[in-house]
Amino acid sequence: MTILLRIGLTPIAFALVTWAQASFGDRIGGRLIGLPVTTGPFLLAVCLTASRLTAAHAAIGVTTGQMSVIVFCVAYAWLARGMAPVPTALTSLALALASVLALSWLHGPWPAAAAVWTVIGVSLLLWPWPARRPPVQAPPAADARGPERPPSAQTQADMPHPRLAGSSKRSPALTRALISTCVVATMATLVPVLGARPAGVITSAPVLLSIILPSTHRLSGAAGAAELARGTIVSMAATISFSAVLASCLPHMAVASALLVAAGALVTLIVVTPLIERALLQAGSALSRPEPVF
Fold this sequence. Notes:
The chain has 13 helices and no strands. By secondary structure, it is an all-alpha fold. The chain has one domain (2-131, 157-288). The chain starts with a helix and ends in a 6-residue tail after the last helix.
């Protein structure tokens, strides 16, 4: 049973994520990527193969490690405006690692969850891209308005890579599924060696996002990557609630009861976070709107 969980759930989940991103856009793909498609099967496998206390420590590690995902997504959205995909990904990964090291001194799931939620709220409030990209206008004719002007740096960042502009937006689903399955299976197996909390932190690392975001950057431009990143961090608020609640409940409840309570918190946050995002979007627009001069 646990072997099926390690090698079966994760590739199925990422196949659905890949299909959703190709069918409904980068934002929806990000919303699904931000759900516990990797950490959920990992925690479930640990719950079924180790003691409740070990599983609780793994859930604390997952909660702490989610900061790396948030920082990676936010850094990528900011840096992609002026950098190519590979340098953007490498710089974002370095910042993500630094954020986890800075958070490692916190003990318990809720201080870590509060810190991550705070970063999510501030990031959405100060998001560097508009919520909806304006429609692309056709360039004016050269003979009517003079010679064409070269696109600005912001326009170039918003455009797909020229070699890939005509490519389909199919994502490397097999590669994502294989990597995610290896991460879950390896970390669940190495819990007795590494320790539950370090294994949880490593499982939360943005390994897949470091592949998905640059590929989206190449196919859809920097703005498409930013849409994927924003959708991811919105859903991460619910994912953090799942791991934090699970870590709090496991020492005091049976595994099945703790999983049900954590799943309830996950679903609740999935419903509530779009409303919070909308409020933060309105507040961010009000902050960025210049005041009238009288």
